């Protein structure tokens, strides 16, 4: 289980196991209706270079163990993105910090053993595997330094070889594949754009301008902009700071295709709404109001619910995809709400919350039927990347 | 935004989704790359090509092949069209990716060997220009490419007059008769010549001084050879061949000898048939002594990071990491019982570096891992030094994080903070004229491609900044010394000492695979030396290991002679048998080191330094800072040390603060 001896990790293992048992808290009302099935959730704690394995099942929710990731003892490696392969055999973690490049790590899901890694670009962040588990798509967020165009890495997962680095825009952020894996969508946090990649051509096929009042789809790749062109842009404390009044900027932070692939929703962190885009016509259908500082998105497999983390609002919204109405908004215990993963049966959403400073990170477990928070589990600080194992256990 | 809108307006209308071809193309099965085993010269270019085949081996002409680098980020680049552009010797993995409409991409990996280019230059190492008849010397010739890469081949030597001096093809010269002779070294198209004057052997006597020496292991003894003729006249310009026995030591061409083992050595200087010996008797250096742990301040909530002492008061400041958001102030007036008096809690998850202004009025600490990802430095007032208060910060341009900061005052220029930028590898200099409102006055980067630029640590002494530039080695800047006209607002490059980290730590790659962590990590100027230490960690875990104590660091401490600051030269080294070399502190003739999993160590660095310091038994003391109740149990991970009044304040990442006294050397018992 503990695949290595990277120093800090062995302590964290003990600490997190203890802390998680004590920290699994159910809301104060009725006794929690724990599920009859078992769910395995992985969450990356960026500040302490570890992956926590959370088990939700008939006995409740707790951290089972932690797995260290990284190789720089005195410097943070910064695990950020995390994803299971759809076949459930492996999971992958992007470490963002590097010297200067980050890496994509591959672990065997059965025993958390290290399989391999490959160096990618600057600050590899959000990642997802293709439906056949053969390819991993990782945005090189390049948070640091000048706002120069960055790219999306494509990795052949069998041999952990990077096979393409597709230029997109400055600070490509939250990204997801279409259900058939043919299209990859990523948000350009500094460029007001959604970018679509044709995964078979390994190139940008279309892009979409998201600024309020100027929404427009366009073919091909966006024109490369220099760092100077982004000089007036502000990343707003990575989505934490409120925008100026009347600012129409979207500052997109996540792109989420619908379950049928016909729609893409983009989270506009500054305008606190979602841009709903019709994939076929590449036009905007509507803007859906969302929570304050909407950040990451996930959609249920049945396509009916959209879950959104609200970074400034310290909450999670569940939105009806058809009507666009918010079904519920659930406050989170701690600040800096981050990633979302939905269980394979659409019953639960697992939301990572980074916390501030030395606060532990938290995973908020939301019952998508009862539309209520089921439990909270503390993990390492700066909890970000999160995913649920594709296969449930009885 | 206007630019985006304009570009949008110029774009054609949305295109219809691509239609699948009428007849499906064959499924790609294989990529054939040519050349199959590519080898190229470093800093040259090579064009790769490929054919995409289906399962039956037929070429698919509609296939598109793209190329990209699959590693070797610092050694070269690969263009999408298959042009490999080498930047250095080594191996660059390349992947060819074939796309055929309607199918997922397939890929084929290949390794391109990048070797030193053709011989373009031959460099001779201190060849003698004057020989006496009968003298034999071996000439050392190194062959380089036009790009400066050293080639493995040996130059072949020839003589213009074998009657005056013969030379074997390997460069062994024998002076035979008085006269002038030109010796030529050739390698490929490159050649160089060296003229030697052979003189009659009129040597009547040779004198080697000192003739007898008693010293300790590790002491550098400089020998001088004097030759005179029968009339007692000095014969100048001769270069002897040096040798010694037994073999545990080092003698260099300048006659500097250092022995590693106690005992008697015979040092010989030879000139033809004449030779002269000197006797060196070495006793053990005998510097090992006891160390005592005087006090402890265990820290368990976070890992422990930098320790720093107030310049005039018995107060320590201690950083936290691994989610640590605070810096502690600690009363150390009673070293046996350090007490935390206060802390500053900040928007950070690592306080990696701390330093006060020389007058103790202010303190600077670094921030990494902020919740809003706006990192930088914090300035705190030390008006009440046991209770520091934040009074300002600096984030502009360094939001990615600051790993190290050095506060330094110069009468001419005032007080500045010299700091590292995690994101860009740039070196920033901030003016602390108004301490709570630092203002950037300069920013400097190594003149190299952006890729791979990482700055890790800064030391400033006498107006010279010594930058530990990871892949770029030690970089020396004038920031006020004047040697190059530099100032804090105008840092000027003085020199650089760069070395082959991959070759130096090849055993780390062998042990745990490629992609390991290695770089120039810290520097400390002391006298005419700069001590630089590398940070080295293996790329992967120890397979099957389950305990923190299985983890280890590696590393080497090098002693760089900067007597000629524009020509830094490595003269000595220390490499632990087990463990790393992290932060160091030098007080007097003692070097104190946090050696990561090898604990806390101290070394005698008195006198001139040459060769292998560990072999010379210069280590003085060792404390294993493991703690059964540590943040990580039963494992040392010693970070560094600050020394004051005979006490070493040692911070261990896993175990908090240790206060250690190195006891005086006990006299040996008198044998009646």
Question: How would you describe the overall organization of this protein?
Answer:
The complex is a heterodimer of chains A (about 400) and B (about 675). Chain A has a single domain, classed as Methylamine Dehydrogenase, Chain H (7 Propeller). The longest helix of chain A is centred in the first third of the chain and has 17 residues, at about 5-25. Chain A has about 400 residues and is mostly beta strands. Chain A is built from two helices and 29 strands. By secondary structure, chain B is an all-beta fold. Among the domains of chain B are: about 25-115, Immunoglobulin-like (Sandwich); about 120-200, Sandwich (Immunoglobulin-like); about 205-285, Immunoglobulin-like (Sandwich), CATH 2.60.40. Chain B is built from three helices and 56 strands. The N and C termini of chain B lie far apart (about 90 Å). At the A-B interface, helix 1, strand 7, strand 11, strand 15 and strand 16 of A face helix 1, strand 5 and strand 8 of B.
The gist of it:
Chain A is mainly beta. Helices cover 5% and strands 49% of the residues of chain A.
Layout: helices, strands, pairs:
The complex is a heterodimer of chains A (394) and B (672).
Chain A: H1 7-23, E1 39-45, E2 50-57, E3 60-68, E4 79-84, E5 90-95, E6 101-108, E7 114-122, E8 124-129, E9 135-140, E10 149-156, E11 161-170, E12 172-177, E13 183-188, E14 193-198, E15 203-209, E16 216-219, H2 236-239, E17 252-257, E18 263-268, E19 273-278, E20 283-289, E21 294-299, E22 305-310, E23 315-320, E24 326-331, E25 337-342, E26 348-353, E27 361-367, E28 372-379, E29 383-388
Antiparallel strand pairs in A: 1-2, 1-29, 2-3, 4-5, 5-6, 6-7, 8-9, 9-10, 10-11, 12-13, 13-14, 14-15, 15-16, 17-18, 18-19, 19-20, 21-22, 22-23, 23-24, 25-26, 26-27, 27-28
Chain B: H1 2-10, E1 28-34, E2 39-41, E3 45-47, E4 49-54, E5 64-69, E6 76-78, E7 83-86, E8 90-99, E9 106-115, E10 119-124, E11 130-132, E12 136-138, E13 141-145, E14 156-159, E15 165-167, E16 172-175, E17 179-187, E18 190-199, E19 205-209, E20 212-216, E21 220-222, E22 224-228, E23 241-245, E24 249-251, E25 256-259, E26 263-271, E27 274-283, E28 291-297, E29 303-309, E30 315-321, E31 326-331, E32 339-345, E33 354-356, E34 362-367, E35 376-381, E36 389-394, E37 405-410, E38 414-420, E39 427-431, E40 439-444, E41 457-461, E42 464-468, E43 474-478, E44 492-497, H2 501-504, H3 506-512, E45 517-526, E46 529-537, E47 557-561, E48 569-574, E49 584-587, E50 590-594, E51 600-604, E52 611-612, E53 619-623, E54 638-644, E55 647-652, E56 656-662
Parallel strand pairs in B: 2-9, 11-18, 20-27, 48-52
Antiparallel strand pairs in B: 1-4, 3-7, 5-8, 6-7, 8-9, 10-13, 12-16, 14-17, 15-16, 17-18, 19-22, 21-25, 23-26, 24-25, 26-27, 28-56, 29-30, 30-31, 31-32, 33-34, 34-35, 35-36, 37-38, 38-39, 39-40, 41-42, 42-43, 43-44, 45-46, 46-47, 47-48, 49-50, 50-51, 51-53, 54-55, 55-56
